[in-house]
Amino acid sequence: MQKALVLLTLLTAPAFAQQPVQQSDQTLTLSRVEKSHPLPNGLSATISGAALEITALRPDVLRIRIGRNNQLPEDASWAVLPAARTSTSPVTLDSSPDSISFHTEALRVSLNRRNGTLRVTDTAGHLLQQDTRPVEYHGSSFRLYKTMQPDEHFFGLGDKTGPLDRRNQAFTDWNTDYFGFQESSDPIYKSIPFFISFNQGRALGVLFDNTFRASFDFGKEFSNAYSFGAPDGPIDYYLFYGPTPRHVVETYAWLTGPSPLPPLWTLGFQQSRYSYYPEQRVLDIADRLREDKIPSDALYLDIDYQLKNRPFTVDPATFPTFTNMIDELAKKHFHVVAITDLHIAHLPNANYAPYDTGAAGDHFVKNPDGTTYVAPVWPGPAVFPDFTQSQSRDWWGTLYTQFYKDGIAGFWNDMNEPAVFQTPTKTMPDNIQHRINEPGFKPRTATHLEIHNVFGMQNTRATYEGLLKLKPDQRPFVLTRASYAGGQRYAATWTGDNSSTWNHLRMTTPMLLNLGLSGFGVSGADVGGFAGTPQPDLLTKWLEIAAFQPIDRDHTAKGTGDQEPWIHGLTHESIRRHFIEERYRLLPYLYTTAEEMSRTGLPIVRPLFLDFPNATPDGHPLDLDAGGEFLFGPDILVAPPAYPDMLDPYELKLPPGDWYDYWSGAHAAHITATTTRDLEQPLAATTKPHTPGAPSSTRDDASRHEAKVGSQDASGNQPLPNPLASATPHPILITPTLETLPVYVRGGAIIPIQPLVQSTDEKPQGPLTLRVYAPTPGSPNSDCHGTLYQDDGISFAFRNGSYLRIDSTCQITNNQLQIHIGKHEGTFQPWWHDLRIEIYGYNSTAPIASANNQPVPASAIQSNPIILTLPDPGTGLELILK
Questions:
Q1: How far apart are CA 516 and CA 623, in angstroms?
Q2: pLDDT of residue 790
Q3: CATH code for residues 2-254
Q4: Can you tell me the distance from the alpha carbon of 287 to that of 281, in angstroms, rounded to the nearest whole number?
């Protein structure tokens, strides 16, 4: 209690520099600047005997390193790419009697001479980060305290549970196998020590590159401070400024690498359970999916396909014709993903090749006495590859040779926290020895305390790089449960062993959003929940929402009820099929978004503030008001209720600008950027699906909306007046129904849509549809554009120009809508010959159109909405409507 009072006094005392600090033999407070030295890209200093170095990697990126005994920590990282870590940017020194300072084009950095605290602002003087007290060591442990501003919010840290905003919460990074985790559970599977500070529309990224059991506190200990620290390891952290959160996310990708472009089939629907066996059961599931015309691309094999749960084996009793089964599934356009856990069965002298070759190459982790560490997991006593050795990762990659030859398309690295049975910690003992033999690192032996959080990441690295060596021109697909910052370079992920409850469906959205912000743009959750059997309505609603998430995988645990889309009868199956079908129609948009992610790091699913950081008058994130809403790519907003099982009407929150109902095409709202909080809400909208294949029970019940405006038009949609013409605009109130999911499209978007297929192997038949959502001239988001990206979906030929990119724009001038469809870039040949242009928000009873200065026959134009189909010349198309 006394210590807490002392700390609180230090945090709040305005004249902290004059306060004496008591030290003991184990405590070192870095409060005395002894000397400093300017660097071309920053500064170095000695503070209370510790070495400090602050350098600019770019004008907007700083790296701060501190080491005891006047020695900086090793300049090495599992997370940060060497090219980024060694980048340098010149600075301008502007020190004073009170501070040692420099500035870049974007940032001002000041080290207080009197107490060693660090302050970072932008060039306009906005505070970005301020030490609340000097750095303090207690033995090998340390903690950094930073000022927390009144309206500062925090996002990131991967798939931690709880709300999207991390403020007023505390977390630990220690990868943990946590079956059936709940909303307050921490830690769970991944450790991603990166977060975004968002304050009044300005964003700052913080990456704390320390692999030990780090912890983060965002106002739990002190109401005016956040902090992070670790029990050991380096003080090595990066600050990178936006000011937009998009720029911060892009910079994080520059530092740690973006997710690679995934194979197209991985974006299709995936069916799984623990486990599908015997062999005929797998084939039966495939046949039922095709018979019921439920589009799908992947089937998963969990551990029961193996002989006695031994990785890289096949049980000949339950899978007697394993290779033939893989071939048969491929003919039906299914890709098989097989689990390959990292625990190798401890079977000396048993002709088990993974153990024999691993032991011969000395590839397993050790006990402190030098013997091989053995512990129980699924196959019984097991050994564990030493993934911090590059040669051991190379060996691991060779284990996939036969499976890849057999035609298995992807691999699932589970249990790689690493999980260990029959131990209180659920993992290896702290003193287990890992040998670091890795380019960029000094060769040495490290304990499990240091390597634990990167163990799963290096497991997936070994898998990914091994698959690349086996098939250099095929994009690997690796799915992992555990990882660390930068692990997105090697694997997609999911949120682990969730539960079949409505609350877990609600938790999925913030977990995936924070994963996306933290680099893992290709992520998902076990649809329907893993632990337990979902209620029929829960599975239906989960499949609806998952259709708009990066990975759409239906998965459940052993002993639970069947969870395939046809379970619970025709009505539920019809609804579920409709949303899976819509995902397949949107694959051109989804794949284009994935390609953008592979270049920029911008995730597929996003919080609203990422694209609309100034959506509220006071600069707080709109997401805090918007319940369960999220962005699916840059242009589509998905708006389930805050609690997915709620029955009461809820209020929709839309960012400023034009928005359209995705299902009906009806204009939702137009809101100015300077509107008051009351004016942020648009008027009533519909949620009526109009896409072919929608279940007959899906309908718009306009009488349920509390805000009715005007009379219905011929299509049954509510006409929407301009909210600026009314002194008292009304909010959209949506009454939830089982069969509907509110989805909206940004005005100014051009969305590519394809004809329905049953798998990504199937060539779409018919034209490519471009849905043009016309913006209102002068609206906050009046820019109109869209991009389409295509390639072969599986190889790296796109790197050599075998891709297709079409950039399109539109504008309204002099009451004319001008649509520019760009020429085909790249050499990849598309599947379509014609373009179907659908135009929303620009209505005319008798539209007149011209294409490349040639009139379009009136008989070829449909009105309200305007629809016309034209040949795609590939050289560009100028379309004018009036």
A1: 15
A2: 98
A3: 2.60.40.1760
A4: 10
- The per-residue pLDDT for 782 is 74
Query: How far from the centroid of its chain's Cα atoms is residue 531's Cα?
Result: 23
Under 8 Å between Cβ of 185 and 161: yes
CA 175: distance to chain centroid?
Answer: 18
- Describe the crossing of helices 536-546 and 502-517 by its angle, rounded to 10 degrees: 20
The encoded tokens of residue 243 equal 């000011």
pLDDT the model gives residue 669:
64
DSSP state of 530: S
Exposed e or buried b per residue across 768-780, where buried means at least 16 C-beta atoms within 10 angstroms of its C-beta: bbbbbbbbbeebb
Q: Which residues are catalytic?
A: 414, 417, 497
3-state class (DSSP) for residue 753: strand
Residues in the chain: 882
Query: How far apart are the C-alpha atoms of 127 and 199, rounded to whole Å?
Result: 9
- Helix, strand, coil shares of the chain, percent, nearest 5, are 20, 25, 50
Element spanning 599, H or E: helix 587-600
Among 874, 770, 766, 867, which Cα is nearest to 822's? 874
Task: Annotate 707-746 with b (16+ C-beta within 10 A) or e (fewer).
Answer: beeeeeeeeebbebeebeeeeebbbbbbbbeebbbbbbbb
In the chain, residues under CATH classification 2.60.40.1180 are 750-881
Spatial CA neighbour of 552 closest among 600, 588, 512: 512
* Residue 832 backbone zone (phi > 0: left; psi -120 to 50: alpha; other: beta): beta
Residue at 299: amino acid letter: L
Beta-carbon contacts of residue 411 (< 8 Å; ≥ 6 apart): 337, 338, 339, 340, 400, 403, 463, 467, 476, 477, 478, 479
Question: What's the pLDDT score for residue 776?
Answer: 84
Distance of CA 344 to the CA centre of its chain: 30
Do residues 271 and 576 touch, judged by C-beta distance below 8 A?
Answer: no
**Exposed e or buried b for every residue in 642-657, given b needs 16+ CB within 10 A?**
ebbebeebbbbbbbbb
Spell out the alpha helix ranges (H) of 184-321: 245-256, 279-291
Distance (Å, whole) CA 347 – CA 356: 8
3-class SS string, 102-158: EECCCEEEEEECCCCCEEEEECCCCEEEEECCCCEEECCEEEEEEECCCCEEEEECC
In this structure, the strands spanning 136-138 and 27-29 are antiparallel
pLDDT in tens, 153-208: 999 999 999 999 999 999 999 999 999 999 999 999 999 999 999 999 999 999 99
CB 393 within 8 A of CB 436: no
Q: What is the pLDDT of residue 26?
A: 83
Q: What is the largest CA-CA distance in the chain?
A: 89
- Location of structure tokens 């962005």: 631
Angle of CA points 721, 725, 727, to nearest 5° = 115
pLDDT reported for residue 25: 54
Q: Identify the segments of the chain with pLDDT beneath 70.
A: 1-25, 669-730, 780-781
Which residue bears the tokens 């964003």? 203
Q: What's the pLDDT at 585?
A: 98
The candidate with the shortest Cα–Cα distance to 308, out of 316, 300, 320, 296, is: 316
Q: How far apart are CA 682 and CA 418, in angstroms?
A: 49
d(CA 306, CA 401): 16
Residues of the chain with CATH 2.60.40.1760: 2-254
What whole-number distance in Å separates Cα of residue 157 and Cα of residue 155? 7
Radius of gyration of the chain (CA): 28
CB atoms closer than 10 angstroms to residue 92: 10
pLDDT of residue 800: 98
Quote the CA–CA distance of 112 and 93 in Å, as a whole number: 14
562 φ, ψ (degrees, to nearest 5): -60, 145
CA distance 748 to 764: 26
Domain 750-881 classification at class level: mainly beta
